[in-house]
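INFO batch 0412 | record 1 of 1 | parsing
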Amino acid sequence: MRTSRDLQLVIAGGNDDMRAGVRACLANLEGIHVVAECSSGEEARGVLATVSVDLLILDTDLSDQGGLDFLGTLTTGYPGAVIFTSSSKDQAVAAFQFHPVDYLMHPVNDERLRAALSRVSDQREAHADAGPSAPRVPAREHAELKTKRLMVKSGGRISFVKAEEIDWIEADRDYVRLYNGQKKHLLRGTISGMERQLQGERFIRIHRSTIVNVDRIREMQPLSYGEYAVILHDGTRLTLSRSFRERVFEHMMTAA
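INFO prediction complete | emitting tokens
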């Protein structure tokens, strides 16, 4: 029997087997109410516009568009949390900009999905305990609440740059270069030291000399020898090296 405390969720994906697999995993779980099952972005958009949803289980492929494109253009009815499913790891890094609870490969692993559902339930309960004065924060905005500031010295002056404003970082001998649109900042230090400093922020190392802000990634394209081209929203092309590939994908697919 459905209760007001049930986790309200929508399943959206163009793959029939994906939806069936998720349904089968949810079948014997208590406290779960599937509001709707959608195969297209158009269907999902209509449901989300009329029903408040705690969780959207979204495949990267819908029948009429890509799942990431759909979520990126969703302006109303944004769900409280998102779990991605996919037949490929290729979109894991780009999906991270939406701060998903998890990124699950086909066929969906029952244990991983249940663990992700448990995290969503815990987050909802924590919000409820905080009382009505605590506004609900959509999943894609969680990481924007707190950020680090980096101290930059230039011409005898000291200024501060918010970490979230940095697009990517490049090693340059005993220095690192911070790229922010057309602006560049040169800091004395190492790329490894910068990686440690930005731990917990929306950054990940993709090459021995490169760190990227995952919110700036538009897409990834496979290259030869297991490498990937990482393309940012401003057209900048970086390289995800083979030696960092598995670590990056694993981080993307297990990030809460």
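INFO post-check: Residues 71 and 204 are 22 Å apart (CA to CA).
INFO record closed
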